[in-house]
Amino acid sequence: MRDFKGKVAVITGAASGIGLGIAERCVGEGLQVVLADIDEENLARAETGLKTAGGTVLAVRTDVSKRSDVELLARRTLDTFGQVHLLFNNAGVAAGGAPWEATWNDWEWVINVNLWGVIHGVKVFTPLMIAQNTECHIVNTSSTAGLTVGGAIGPYSVTKHAVVALSESLYLTLQQRNSLVKVSVLCPGLVRTDIINTERHRPTELRNDPVPMSPEKQAALAAFKAALEMGMPPLQVAAVVFDAIQSERFYILPHPEWNEVIQLRTDRLLRMENPRNPAEAIMKLMSPRR
Ligand SMILES: NC(=O)c1ccc[n+]([C@@H]2O[C@H](COP(=O)([O-])OP(=O)(O)OC[C@H]3O[C@@H](n4cnc5c(N)ncnc54)[C@H](O)[C@@H]3O)[C@@H](O)[C@H]2O)c1
């Protein structure tokens, strides 16, 4: 897709971070924008900001982990704008830990939002786009964590690998049918967003019992926060995403410096060598001296 003006984009997780950056870029491109997010306060702020910038905007409070919410999002989009051309399945949350130590609630929450959220978006919107028979593009947000495995972020990494697999399957099946619906998967490294405060989106029924955080975990969190603050600005990610949509590129990797970490896993896999913890290489990428 090269011509965006007047077309319609739906963005989940649009009230903050990468989603908001994509929404700002959409408005800049003259797209009509549907903002979907669970955070009503930030959603209202994003809506006002984008309208002030001259955008045509609809905000729909949406919990992507709920199929009925995503169905309603599609209905509201079609009722308001009649069509949908771009879909960004971007909403995501993070919880980590070794697979057996992450709580049942951690697993459920992260899978519900990061994987079911994308499945809901794909299942609800793809048939609408196919039926429309116009140029369309779906971008699913995964992560470099969907192409590598850092041991300590078990549940998150599992969902992000699944999003890559889901996106490849979607791409290949649509391509086989010569569909006008194109697909990309976005795998960013570190982006300057609010993901460090991800816990505020956790539903009450999936909260963990409070336990004091170990000094190691506190230090790791502080290092991650500092690294995020130096991460790529969301608008720069959005620019890479739009470039990929225009050139119909499937894999979107805005952080080439992460390639060596991805390579480490791929090389060992093909040589049937056992996994090596990429923590050292990742710490190097997170280091402020870079
Ligand atoms: N920030 C990074 O470094 C980074 C790197 C790789 C991938 N990602 C991915 O980018 C995506 C966006 O994250 P971000 O970094 O912009 O974080 P963010 O916290 O700034 O934004 C995430 C948005 O998703 C929304 N959200 C959370 N749960 C939701 C739900 N159930 N339904 C609807 N919306 C929900 C939040 O309210 C928030 O507005 C996520 O999928 C994340 O995994 C982020």
In short:
With 290 residues, this protein is of the alpha/beta class. The chain has a single domain (8-210, 232-261), classed as NAD(P)-binding Rossmann-like Domain (Rossmann fold), CATH 3.40.50.720.
Descriptors:
48% helix, binds nicotinamide-adenine-dinucleotide, 290 residues, alpha/beta, 9 helices, 7 strands, globular, Rossmann fold
Question: Can you walk me through this structure?
Answer:
The chain has 290 residues and is of the alpha/beta class. It has a single domain, classed as 3-Layer(aba) Sandwich (Rossmann fold). Helices cover 48% and strands 12% of the residues. The protein has a 7-stranded parallel beta sheet, sandwiched between helices. Helix 3 runs parallel beside helix 4. It is globular, with a radius of gyration of 19 Å. The mean pLDDT is 95. The structure holds nicotinamide-adenine-dinucleotide (NAD).
Basic shape? globular
Q: What count of structural domains?
A: 1
CATH topology: Rossmann fold
- Roughly how much helix do the residues carry, as a percent range? 40-55%
Spans of 5+ residues with little confidence (pLDDT < 50)?
Answer: none
Ligands, deduplicated: nicotinamide-adenine-dinucleotide
What is the chain-wise order of helices and strands? Answer: EHEHEHEHEHEHHEHH
Per-chain topology:
Layout: E1 8-12, H1 17-28, E2 32-37, H2 40-52, E3 56-61, H3 67-81, E4 86-89, H4 104-132, E5 136-141, H5 154-176, E6 181-186, H6 215-229, H7 234-246, E7 251-252, H8 259-270, H9 279-286
Parallel strand pairs: 1-2, 1-4, 2-3, 4-5, 5-6, 6-7
Helix pairs in contact: 1-7, 3-4, 4-5
The structure holds nicotinamide-adenine-dinucleotide (NAD).
Nicotinamide-adenine-dinucleotide binds next to helix 1.
